Input
Amino acid sequence: MTNRIELIQGDITKLQVDAIVNAANTSLLGGGGVDGAIHRAAGPELLAVCQLLGGCETGEAKVTKAFKLAAKFIIHTVGPVWREGTQDEEQLLANCYKNSLQLAAENDCKIVAFPNISTGVYHFPKDLAAKIAVREITLFLEKNKVPEVVIFVCFDQDNFDIYKGLIKGNRHQAIERDA
Ligand code: AR6
Output
């Protein structure tokens, strides 16, 4: 099972894939970072449907259409705020990846792109977050045919370098391409 994890550096809103994952907050009503970029690019209809979802618990995920984006779906998940590892943050971050992948599979999303959940405003340590992300995605891909491909979209150079190092040591072969 090679070539099922890819790595790119860039803006996740530009990708033409089946689903992009949003690092949202529990309100699901938008915010800064990747969440703000996704809402701006998808247009106001996204906020209108998100208002009907009743929020989302940390570690859980909900799916919407992607409106003006080239992607078909947006999977909104809520990462944990890093509190020195005292609040089950590692498990909650793992749940974000698992639950997002489960929703992607249920919606037959063959290509899914993830940002580096919780590593911005929520201050989860980037190294640890990347290890959890690669581990959970690898486990899921081993057990499921869909998604066929998962793309890690790193925006900042730190995360990109961390993922490059990690994926090299992974038995998946990572393909790098431009966003
Ligand atoms: N494409 C891909 N990745 C991006 C983009 C982009 N356009 N913009 C930023 N990133 P953050 P969090 C990266 O702060 O830590 C929001 O206000 C960024 O470099 O967006 O989960 C929500 O509403 C970082 O690596 O999300 C929540 O309140 C990663 O995305 C809160 O922030 C995540 O950074 C969630 O915080």
User: Anything to note?
Assistant: Residues 89-106 form the longest helix (18 residues).
